[in-house]
Specification:
Blueprint lengths: L3 E2 L8 E11 L5 E11 L9 E4 L4 E7 L2 E2 L5 E4 L2 E4 L7 E9 L9 E5 L2 E5 L19 E10 L5 E4 L2 E7 L5 E12 L6 E4 L2 E8 L5 E8 L8 H18 L7 E7 L6 E2 L4 E5 L12 H16 L8 E2 L5 H19 L2 H20 L11 E2 L8 H34 L3 E2 L1 H12 L8 H4 L5 E9 L4 E9 L14 E8 L20 E4 L3 E6 L7 E4 L8 E4 L3 H10 L3 H22 L9 H12 L5 H8 L4 H8 L5 H18 L1 H10 L10 H17 L5 H13 L3 H14 L1 H15 L3 H12 L5 H9 L10 H14 L1 H4 L5 H14 L3 H8 L10 H15 L6 H11 L1
Parallel strand pairs: 2-12, 18-19, 19-21, 22-24, 25-31
Antiparallel strand pairs: 1-23, 2-3, 3-9, 4-8, 5-6, 5-9, 7-8, 10-11, 11-16, 12-15, 13-16, 14-15, 17-18, 20-21, 25-26, 26-29, 27-28, 27-30
The structure holds diaminopropanoic acid and zinc ion.
The site of diaminopropanoic acid (DPP) has 10 residues, from β20 and α2.
Pfam family, one: Peptidase_M1
Cofactor: Zn(2+)
InterPro entries: Aminopeptidase_N-like_N, Aminopeptidase_N-like_N_sf, PepN_Ig-like_sf, Peptidase_M1, Peptidase_M1_dom, Peptidase_M1_pepN, Peptidase_M1_pepN_C, Peptidase_M1_pepN_C_sf
């Protein structure tokens, strides 16, 4: 397909005011009647034909204003329907198409999952249901009649409010009619039909509107939907309190389905979720699962305003709804849990996914300017970096200025299909500032590098920061302009207290934030009586890669004393990362670095009784092998990194042993499992202790892990211990894996954890193990969760084995991508993106990886999804 360019945007030629759908569900022959009230767009090109999108559609009939059209009046293919010369006035277009939901393995459009009918329309799935101007700037009011066999689909759900329901006399069929009063783009359309159990609740909005809440799940699983329902109600309240956003329909339904390409989908009034982000019980879900459920329930709910009431003009603006909504769900989780720990987790995710993306051939701006396949842009850059850009706005404007901008945005653009420019203009107007330079965050790709040099002058009692910024070239962008970087900082005095920030022009650095906007810039602070240690980029105020002249001693000091918890964590991580890089390099000659500074920092953290256990657990968890690879940047040897990291784990396990052995029993569980953040934090720290203690694989430590596994009364502890055994205790591994399987064999979401864990074992036999598991009865290539758990974990969470020196890992993934592409291109393309860092590898692996990506690229008949990732990966 031809690339689509942002600069080519034109308003639609025809608008749709109302859509009436009549959908007769049938496993193989679903009939869709669509009645579209259309009119020429005054902003479109005059005299245009009506051109509708389609995808694999079969047209049965089309009429205009009630008259069937002659064959010469229109052209129809599976991918489009054009009415050549419609009268240039309001018209009624009626279209009949037939579909086979059972044959829809792409899981886009209308398909079947575990015997139920469901839909996924974002980004371009509605055109697989009926011919339509399937673009987000065409907003219409939908009425949907759904008909089905009562036996097969007693539950029939649509967008909006249910306005009618009934039996069809003399048949075994019934119907419901749904009306959604809010104009919406087609990607927010949804329907569900099936035999489902329901958890019901209700919510009273701030202005007293009574909303019926429903979560629908596979029969027998309703007892696992309670946490999701609780999270939903908390989300609804929070959005009212923090953003003034109130729900706007009488019903809000969520349906959990087992086969889903993404995490979840924010269809108006009818969210559809991957069941893994709804279903939870202490026996089957980990603390991380609970946290994800809470975040994603909130995310999809928050889209009701940021995405649905205000939608995107075109798909280039995807970050307008996604970056903003991720920011909102991050804030929600921060308020519900621990703010610093949430920030640490978010930054870890940002670095591991987004920084990696930015550093390779798939780098793209937060708002891309061109795409071949929009499905490939649901990325860490659009989502996570997009959220960082919104966070920076808040840092720059302050809480009040930010809220004023958001209020103006809701006010000015409610009902619109908006752009990033519209969004930024609200903040500029509400605060009387110019955001032209700031807008580069949306246009320039790559991670900015910030080098900071601090120097204290005793004579003038001044502290000077010299700052240089650099944005490296990325695909299609050789030269970059300087960015606006909000750098939150503190100058930490010898006792750990923050010194006042008085700039030499007499101004305070407002809210502790310096605004860096030049390629090189200096700031001088006055009245600095003693040598301070600069705590830079506090709270990760800007998504940059920061280097500085802080010494190892400075970092140890910050890890112990900084008042900013994020930077305490970050100082220890920086020490660990520097150690791992040096230790990796030392394996090919040179002196091995000393771990003493890191041991000192982590001992202090473990000893500090005032710290939140969840924070300590994060501090103890070392940078990942992928983090180290990214830091090294070129000629990467994954085996050397793995070995260096293993060494450091053993060193820490030994050096911290007394503290770890003291902490572990102190955190033993009491009472029954509760998923709250405090309890989860204690489990996280206890497990981190267990893990480090087992690093040397001493018999007593392995015995502790076995006991932990056997005594666990919840999935968090059980799975964690299983992972310790699987990675570090080859003798105990198989019996533990077998016991786990026997216990959970009937629970696909738990078996996914079992698949994922085995796929991550860092030994050569894992490839054969993964191959064998693809033949396991619990595995299915048709289910995205299974594929991601087993094969996705191998490619993205097992660096030494995906990057086997013989290239067999690359070959296996390329083979799988090709096998999957015909069935589900989106999942196949995701899997192929595992090659995104291939250029950073050492020469032998680099050429083996390149050859496999090229083999994929050269295969005839690829989907646009896979063809696009392959081509960009090689560019
Ligand atoms: N729009 C979905 C989300 O919430 C993804 N398709 O991110
Ligand atoms: Zn979203």
């Amino acid at each position: 397909p031809q690339p689509v360019r942002l600069s080519d945007y034109r308003p639609p030629d025809w608008l749709v005011d109302t859509v009436h759908l009549d959908i007769r569900l049938d496993r193989h022959a679903t009939r869709v009647m669509a009645r579209l009230a259309m009119r020429p767009n005054p902003d479109g090109r005059e005299g245009s034909p009506i051109a509708l999108d389609g995808d694999e559609l079969v047209l049965k009939a089309v009429s205009l204003d009630g008259t069937p059209l002659a064959g010469t009046a229109y052209g129809a293919t599976p991918s489009g329907l054009t009415l050549f010369a419609p009268p240039q006035q309001p018209v009624l277009v009626e279209i009949e198409t037939w579909l086979d939901p059972s044959a829809n393995s792409k899981l886009m459009g209308l398909y079947r999952s575990s015997g139920a009918y469901c839909t996924q329309c974002e980004a371009e799935g509605f055109r697989r249901i009926t011919y339509f101007p399937d673009r987000p700037d065409v907003l219409a009011v939908y009425t949907t009649r759904i008909e089905a066999e009562r036996e097969e689909a007693p539950i029939l759900l649509g967008n909006g409010n249910r306005v009618a329901a009934g039996e069809i006399e003399g048949t075994s069929r019934h119907y419901t009619i749904w009306h959604d009063p809010w104009p919406k783009p087609s990607y927010l359309f949804a329907l569900v039909g099936g035999r489902l159990d329901k958890v019901a609740d209700e919510f009273r909005t701030a202005t007293g509107r009574q909303v019926e809440l429903g979560i629908y799940v596979e029969p027998g699983k309703a007892d696992r939907a309670g946490y999701a329902m609780d999270a939903l109600k908390r989300s609804m309240r929070w959005d009212e309190e923090v953003f003034g956003c109130e729900y706007d329909l009488d019903v809000f339904n969520i349906v959990a389905v087992a086969d889903f390409n993404m995490g979840a989908m924010e269809n108006k009034g009818l969210n559809i979720f991957n069941d893994k982000y709804v279903l939870a019980s202490p026996e089957t879900a980990t603390d991380a699962d609970y946290a994800n459920i809470e975040a994603i329930i909130a995310h999809e709910y928050f889209h009701n305003w940021t995405g649905n009431r205000i939608t995107c003009r075109d798909w280039f603006q995807l970050c307008l709804k996604e970056g903003l909504t991720v920011f909102r769900d991050q804030e929600f989780s921060s308020d519900q849990r621990s703010r610093p720990v949430k920030r640490i987790a978010d930054v870890r995710l940002l670095k591991s996914h987004q920084f990696a993306e930015d550093a390779g051939p798939l780098a793209h701006p937060v708002r891309p300017s061109t795409y071949r396949e929009i499905n490939n842009f649901y990325t860490a850059t659009v989502y996570e970096k997009g959220a960082e850009v919104v966070r920076m706005l808040r840092t720059l404007l302050g809480e009040e200025g930010f809220r004023a901008g958001m209020d103006l945005y809701f006010d000015r653009h409610d009902g619109d299909a908006a752009t990033v420019e519209d969004f930024l203009a609200c903040f500029a107007d509400a605060n009387g500032i110019d955001l032209t330079q700031f807008a580069r965050w949306y246009a320039q790709s790559g991670t900015p590098e910030l080098d900071v040099h601090g120097s204290w002058d005793a004579a003038t009692r001044s502290y000077r920061l010299d700052i240089a910024q650099h944005l490296p070239p990325t695909p299609g962008q050789d030269d970059k302009a300087p960015m606006v970087i909000p750098l939150a900082l503190g100058l930490v005095g010898p006792d750990g207290e923050d010194l006042p920030l008085v700039l030499d022009d007499g101004a305070n650095a407002e809210r502790g934030v310096l605004v860096v906007s030049q390629p090189r810039q200096s700031f001088v602070f006055r009245e600095v009586a003693t040598r301070p240690v600069a705590s830079l980029n506090r709270g990760f105020s800007a998504p940059v890669k920061l280097t500085s002249n802080l010494s190892t001693d400075d970092l140890v000091f910050l890890a112990r004393r900084d008042s900013d918890p994020f930077n305490r964590f970050d100082a220890a991580q920086t020490l660990a990362l520097a150690h791992l890089v040096a230790a990796t390099r030392a394996r090919s000659g040179g002196a091995a670095p000393s771990a003493t500074p890191l041991v000192e920092a982590l001992s202090a953290t473990l000893e500090d009784a005032a710290l939140d256990p969840a924070f300590v657990a994060q501090a103890l968890s070392l940078p990942s092998e992928a983090d180290v690879a990214r830091e090294i940047g070129r000629e990467v040897d994954p085996d050397a990194i793995h070995a260096a990291r293993g060494d450091l784990r053993r060193t820490l396990g030994d050096a911290l042993r007394p503290l770890l052995e003291m902490t572990y029993p102190r955190l033993a569980p009491f009472g029954t499992y509760a998923p709250d953040a405090g309890s989860a934090g204690r489990r996280a720290l206890r497990n981190a202790c267990l893990d480090l203690l087992a690093a040397t694989a001493a018999p007593a430590d392995i015995a502790r892990a076995v006991a932990h596994f056997e005594a666990a009364d919840n999935m968090t502890d059980r799975l964690f211990a299983l992972s310790v055994l699987a990675h570090g205790a080859p003798q105990q591994r198989e019996p533990a894996l077998a016991a786990f399987y026997e216990r959970f064999r009937d629970d696909p979401l738990v078996i996914d954890k079992w698949f994922a864990l085995q796929a991550q074992i860092a030994e050569p036999a894992t490839l054969d193990r993964v191959r064998a598991l693809t033949g396991h009865p619990a595995f299915a290539m048709s289910n995205p969760n299974r594929v991601r758990a087993l094969i996705g974990s191998y490619s993205s969470a097992n660096p030494t084995q995906f990057n086997r020196a013989d290239g067999a890992g690359y070959r296996f993934i390329a083979d799988t991508v090709l096998a999957l592409d015909g069935r589900n291109p989106q999942v196949a393309a995701r899997l192929l993106a595992a090659f995104k860092s291939w250029r950073a590898l050492e020469p032998r692996r680099r050429s083996l990886a390149e050859a496999e990506v090229r083999r994929v690229a050269d295969t005839p008949g690829l989907s646009p999804d896979v063809a696009d990732i392959a081509a960009r990966s090689l560019s």
